[in-house]
Fold this protein.
Amino acid sequence: MYGKLGYEVMSYVEEFSREAGAEAFPVAKITREEYARRRKDMLPAGSILQEGAGLAFLASFADFYFGNGCLLCGIKDGQRLFVPEFLGDPAHIPGILRYLDCPEGAFRVPGNEKPFAMCRSLADSAA
């Protein structure tokens, strides 16, 4: 539907589940402002920035975390962690789950598997 309106896919993601590992990998809760600042440095080239109202909406139900070389926003639902965005080395995910006391989690990372964000140019293409 959006493609017919001139929107184009701008990014792709991969989604997967993991279980907590034996060793904890510590992460610290950070503010949404720090998340936005660190995110700019960790996004793959061509990614879409999450700022302003979009980030404020995300902050209304998610917590932001930073660890050695990784950044994530997470939503705890009982003992399950849903991570709509994880940036960094996915090898740390089992340890992060252990540290946050979540036996399992669902994660979304930048990838090539599933179309995710779409954008439409505001410039007049006929000009």
Remarks:
- The two ends are 25 Å apart (CA to CA).
